User: Which sequence fits this backbone?
């Protein structure tokens, strides 16, 4: 069953056609990889999908409903959470607070509740904090809960960003180059983490530069080149697709 | 602490006289303003250079509803919430068109908004006389509690408590309330959303925060604190005029917030207290000091007061760029 | 029709002065991202220093235009020294500090300068001697003074010179590079400190010129003149798109025109409900409307959110 279906997505920047007619569908429970050479439009697609850029053409059906693109918070509320290629944490908040912010969309007490410390507010607040600690534990940085986000190591910052995204209770977790800048040990740890996510029933969209990681991890892979999808298949088939070899693997593995 | 705050007016009144009691009352008003602006600038990171406009809105709301100007004499307990509400609405009115603006663009628009409000107050005496123009509105009803006007002294167990002290207690109670509200907001879902927006707006959106609404909420909350302070000011002074709400006042309140330590409530209180009290001290101390040092008054004390104020702003920022009492984590981290 | 033309001329004169001051704001903002709140006071100091020199030389018997030029020169030197010092003392140490810290020192400097001016020159308004020709000429029903023509020409030439400097010289290239990316410019061998100092020197000299021209235009100078002038000029810079030199010029001239026409017509436009007191409201209102539709000003680059 497909969780997300993107139909004919198009995006232009001035005269440049960054995305052209990109359609793909992501099935529930799979890890779906999106790869492509530099400048192929991966991140653009990502930003359109998560509402950061308005799209010019096409539509996205998510979880059976059309997704209102163009406002990131609504996309998040609909159940798609994301991380950023160049990590965007709330630098001067603690790790725990970062994850607590992630609970925003799934909680509701407002100003009045906060000012009067209503029972509902206190319970919700306690639940938010509990959930945040669980998630920090889940991604393996519970011991850094009280440290400021900016003081975490690079690998831990990536993990924290994932924990924050998970706090929004996504059905689809979209990771934008999570292994970028990581050393081999950190990448292996990341891989274990993502596999765990799948085991726990989450659907993952993975944009990656590290072809080895994508091929080893993903159930299916789509390849973008010059803003167009040139292949979509299981990793082995993609690996042997002549178009892909020409566009991408051919240049990067030589 | 509570005892200290309770006896302060008696000590100050006895030792330094009523002028200083007044200064103390004003300091509390300024602290309320600084706490309100801290929500907008300190928490949500929205630079507002026209904050005093909300103080003005609160003050004029009070003035119009409790003075012979329109012949209305509503009680203070009814007007103060109305003032807060009206100021809050103005906050949203200011916020709504400016949400897309960032940083310094927002600063100049808020500054323009503040000036617009002041100019309207100055000129809305014709064709219909609403604000009475530059002359301002006089003979405003003092705030009264339980039928007793706070402008008059009262005898308690044979001790005469002057009106200024009564106002002190009222302001103190409201300041404490505002501090509690501020702290509770800061440690809430809404407060975290504000700080998240300050830290990284894109990431905040990605966390599912409707940044538009949350920013408007910051403007509205900050403005309503200003509105309450403005209402108190009008009742306390029994007179309002546009002169009290110039750009310099907005800047003064901003300085309290930044000098004290943006986003850190105890720091902001310290900033408000220092900037409200120290310049007064200079003003009172300047003449005797100069007489003692030079045998005559060389520099007008008012000039000297402002001069030292300006120098203090420069020096404090040079040596403590994050403010005098920043939040612990910020002290190390505020450097980019 | 003659009112219209008259207000256009008045607006252009005022606007070209705004533009000169706005350039000072926008140049500093372009490089440091800082609202140099003290710039208005630098303009005021320029006017006051020039006035002092004029008074001192009044009995010297030199021809009036020569005295004017000497006064202008003295004002420029004084303002450049002042601008340089302000940057050194109040801004440079805070270059990596939280964003609002230098804004507060700028406000502090502004207050100090204003108080110093009040202590040195007193609280009263000073009348400025007429040293430049100010004959009135009738031009299609509008009154144009020779002084206004001089102001327009001087401002236009100065701005053209600045554009040449920025676009055609080594120094200009280094300034643009520093504004674009100080770190990379540094790697390319540009001494950022020197460029920033130069920016303050040039901006302050422009400010001095503006101060002298505006006091000549109104025949008046006082300690408080920098504040409102600075405010207007900053508004103009934002209107045009802060950080953009062309934007500051367009914004300045436009603001001058809006104010002049607004003052002339606001009564008619609103059926007499709003008088010319609302001139400033008009200016800020236009600013807000422009920013709502173009959040980066008229000529500012569109900044889109980047992931």
Assistant:
């Amino acid at each position: 069953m497909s969780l997300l279906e993107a139909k004919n997505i198009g995006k232009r920047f001035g005269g440049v056609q960054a995305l052209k007619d990109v359609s793909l569908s992501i099935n529930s429970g799979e890890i779906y990889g999106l790869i492509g050479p530099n400048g192929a439009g991966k991140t653009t697609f990502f930003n359109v999908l998560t509402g950061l850029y308005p799209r010019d053409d096409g539509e996205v059906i998510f979880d059976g409903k059309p997704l209102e693109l163009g406002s990131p918070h609504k996309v998040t509320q609909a159940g798609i959470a994301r991380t950023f290629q160049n990590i965007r944490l709330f630098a001067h908040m603690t790790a725990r607070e970062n994850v607590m912010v992630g609970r925003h969309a799934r909680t509701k007490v407002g100003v009045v509740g906060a000012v009067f410390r209503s029972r509902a507010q206190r319970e919700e607040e306690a639940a938010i904090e509990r959930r945040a600690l669980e998630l920090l534990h889940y991604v393996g940085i519970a011991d850094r809960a009280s440290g400021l986000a900016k003081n975490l190591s690079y690998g831990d910052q990536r993990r924290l960003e994932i924990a924050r995204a998970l706090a929004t209770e996504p059905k689809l977790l979209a990771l934008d180059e999570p292994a970028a800048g990581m050393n081999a040990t950190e990448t292996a740890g990341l891989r274990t983490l993502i596999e765990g996510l799948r085991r726990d029933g989450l659907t993952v969209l993975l944009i990656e530069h590290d072809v080895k990681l994508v091929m080893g991890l993903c159930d299916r892979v789509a390849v973008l080149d010059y803003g167009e999808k040139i292949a979509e298949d299981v990793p082995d088939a993609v690996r042997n697709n002549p178009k892909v070899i020409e566009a991408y693997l051919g240049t990067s593995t030589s | 602490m509570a005892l200290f705050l309770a006896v302060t007016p008696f000590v100050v009144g006895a030792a330094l006289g009523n002028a200083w009691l007044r200064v103390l009352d004003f300091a509390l008003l300024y602290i309320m303003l600084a706490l309100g602006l801290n929500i907008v600038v300190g928490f949500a990171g929205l630079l507002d250079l026209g904050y005093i406009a909300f103080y003005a809105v609160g003050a004029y709301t009070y003035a119009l509803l409790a003075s012979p100007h329109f012949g209305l004499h509503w009680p203070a307990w009814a007007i103060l919430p109305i003032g807060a509400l009206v100021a809050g609405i103005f906050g949203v009115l200011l916020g709504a068109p400016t949400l897309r603006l960032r940083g310094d663009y927002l600063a100049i628009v808020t500054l323009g908004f503040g000036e617009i409000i002041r100019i309207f107050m100055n000129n809305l005496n014709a064709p219909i006389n609403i604000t009475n123009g530059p002359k301002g509105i006089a003979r405003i009803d003092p705030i009264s509690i339980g039928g007793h006007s706070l402008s008059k002294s009262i005898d308690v167990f044979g001790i005469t408590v002057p009106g200024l002290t009564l106002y002190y207690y009222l302001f103190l109670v409201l300041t404490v309330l505002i501090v509690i509200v501020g702290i509770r907001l800061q440690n809430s879902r809404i407060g975290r959303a504000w700080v998240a927006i300050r830290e990284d707006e894109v990431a905040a959106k990605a966390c599912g925060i409707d940044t538009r609404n949350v920013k408007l909420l910051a403007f509205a909350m900050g403005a309503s604190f200003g509105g309450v302070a403005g209402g108190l000011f009008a009742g306390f002074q029994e007179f309002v005029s546009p002169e009290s709400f110039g750009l310099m006042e907005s800047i003064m309140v901003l300085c309290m917030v930044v000098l004290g330590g943006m986003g850190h409530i105890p720091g902001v209180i310290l900033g408000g207290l220092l900037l409200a009290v120290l310049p007064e001290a200079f003003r009172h101390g300047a003449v005797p000091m100069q007489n003692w040092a030079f045998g005559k008054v060389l520099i007008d004390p008012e000039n000297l007061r402002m001069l030292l104020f300006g120098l203090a702003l420069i020096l404090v920022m040079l040596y403590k760029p994050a403010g005098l009492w920043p939040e612990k984590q910020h002290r190390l981290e505020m450097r980019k | 029709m003659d009112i219209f033309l008259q207000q256009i001329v008045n607006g252009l004169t005022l606007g070209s002065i705004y533009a000169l001051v706005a350039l000072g704001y926008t140049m500093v903002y372009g490089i440091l991202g800082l609202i140099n709140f003290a710039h208005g006071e630098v303009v005021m100091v320029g006017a006051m220093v020039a006035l002092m020199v004029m008074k001192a030389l009044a009995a010297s018997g030199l021809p009036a235009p020569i005295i004017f030029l000497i006064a202008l020169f003295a004002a420029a030197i004084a303002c450049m020294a002042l601008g340089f010092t302000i940057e050194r003392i109040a801004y440079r140490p805070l270059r990596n500090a939280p964003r609002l810290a230098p804004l507060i020192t700028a406000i502090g400097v502004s207050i100090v300068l204003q108080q110093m001016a009040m202590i040195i020159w007193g609280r009263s308004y000073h009348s400025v001697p007429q040293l430049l020709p100010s004959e009135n000429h009738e031009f299609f029903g509008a009154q144009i003074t020779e002084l206004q023509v001089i102001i327009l020409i001087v401002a236009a030439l100065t701005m053209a010179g600045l554009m040449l400097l920025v676009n055609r010289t080594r120094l200009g290239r280094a300034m643009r590079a520093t504004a674009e990316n100080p770190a990379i410019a540094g790697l390319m061998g540009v001494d950022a400190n020197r460029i920033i100092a130069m920016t303050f020197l040039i901006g302050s000299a422009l400010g001095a010129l503006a101060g002298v021209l505006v006091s000549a235009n109104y025949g008046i100078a006082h300690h408080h003149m920098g504040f409102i002038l600075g405010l207007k000029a900053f508004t103009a810079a934002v209107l045009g798109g802060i950080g953009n030199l062309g934007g500051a010029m367009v914004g300045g001239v436009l603001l001058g025109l809006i104010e002049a026409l607004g003052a002339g017509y606001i009564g008619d436009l609103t059926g007499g409900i709003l008088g010319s007191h609302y001139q400033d409201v008009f200016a800020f209102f236009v600013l807000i409307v422009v920013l709502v539709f173009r959040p980066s000003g008229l000529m500012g680059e569109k900044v889109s959110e980047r992931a």
About this structure: The mean pLDDT of chain A is 90. Chain A touches chain B through 44 residues (CB under 8 Å). The two ends of chain A are 37 Å apart (CA to CA).
